[in-house]
C-alpha cells in the first residue's frame, strides 16, 4: 500500500512529539522518561487505522521517524 502525504500529519505524528519538559520531569531518569514516551506512542499507534501508520506529514516523514528524531536526546 502506498503511503499518503498528509499536510499536518496524523494523530500519530502528534503522539510522536516529545512531551513538554514539565511532563517529562514528572518521571525521574531518562530511561523511564523514554519508556513512558514509547508507551504513549505505542498506545496511540494501536488506536489508529493501519493505513495511517505509514502516512507521511508535510515534511514527508512517517510518525516513526518523527518519534526517532524528537527523542534522539533521550536515547
TrEMBL record:
GO cellular component: membrane
Superkingdom of origin: Eukaryota
Designated name of the protein: Uncharacterized protein
Organism the protein comes from: Rubus argutus (Southern blackberry)
Amino acid at each position: 500500500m502506498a503511503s499518503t502525504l498528509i499536510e499536518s500529519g496524523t494523530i500519530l505524528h502528534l503522539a510522536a512529539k516529545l512531551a513538554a519538559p514539565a511532563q517529562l520531569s514528572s518521571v525521574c531518569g531518562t530511561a523511564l522518561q523514554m519508556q513512558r514516551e514509547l508507551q504513549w506512542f505505542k498506545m496511540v499507534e494501536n488506536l489508529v487505522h493501519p493505513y495511517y501508520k505509514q502516512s507521511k506529514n508535510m515534511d514527508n516523514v512517517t510518525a516513526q521517524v518523527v518519534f526517532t528524531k524528537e527523542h534522539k536526546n533521550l536515547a
